[in-house]
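Homework help thread (please don't just give me the answer)

Our assignment gives two proteins as sequence + structure token strings and asks us to describe the second one. The first is just a warm-up. Here they are:
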Amino acid sequence: MGRKSIEIIGINVDELIHQLNSALAEEWLAFYQYWIGARVMVGPMRGDIEKELLLHATQELNHAVLVVGRIIQLGGTPILTPADWFKYARCKYDAPTDPYIERVLQQNLEAERCAIQRYQEIAQLTNGKDFATYQIATTILNEEIEHEEDIESWLADIQRLKEEVKQLRM
């Protein structure tokens, strides 16, 4: 990072790099959670939701690209080994051991809510102090909010479908 950039940043760069590395670890875990969950899930609306979960996985990977770029710009080193992802991540990874679609979606919903919190914290930390990181954080935050909304909508749709089937059986 350039000397002038460091002068104007206005926050502890090491702390910020640590926060970004934590976010990076969580992005990799979210990517895999979406990707593998989409591949193994079973249940109603699977075909349509699988395509969207794979899109979400791609977006999580794109978030990782943005975060890595910023870590490097700040003069830091991104996490170099997957073994460290679990050490840095606050947002947990849930293996889709129960592949039923509602369970997979619920796991992803919990991860999205954690990611929303992470990027809200980074945005608050950098607001008015580090405009480049702030912009990255708010861009990612907006996508994470969209992901949460998508998942909540799918869960509601599945619940309505189950209720309609139940009514037909009566």
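The one we have to describe:
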Amino acid sequence: MRRKSASDAVRVYSNPFMDVHHTRAEFDGFHKDYFVVDLGPRAGVVALRDGAVLLTRQYRFLPDDYSWELPGGRVDAGESPEIAARRECLEETGIECPDLLRLVEYYPGLDNFDNRTTIYLSEAPRVVREFVPVPSEVVEIRWVPFGEALAMVTSGTILDALTVTGILAVRTLRRVG
């Protein structure tokens, strides 16, 4: 039984993209220290067209390489995850997704990452403007056949949690119906 609430957390670091909080939770007979990285909520979209999924290519620090990912990003203050998913896809790719269906919602880590993530499915995406690479953001977009994207997940070529979760959620949805 826990005796201290997360609201007792103390901010130990902050920048425009995240906050880090520390709290000590006391249980019957033991305690744990938690350092929680608050990145804010995130949203992404699995856009499907003609059997292919839309992926973006971005540089990522930890693998020190470019990564294929679903379009997505932070949910701004006052914005719903659905609106954020639409906005992020349009900003990153020039593709609009007006028909979003909520696929899955999750936390990447239940003890240390406070960024509830919602992924949507769009089966009627449409190009509304030409894609323009932005080196600090997305450098390339590609429609990847769904089977190939799934193979990229299972082979470890795609490691991004949002992308892995979104692709596997679509696969599950297709199998279950």
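TA reply:
I won't write it for you, but here's a hint about the kind of observation we're looking for: The two ends are 40 Å apart (CA to CA).
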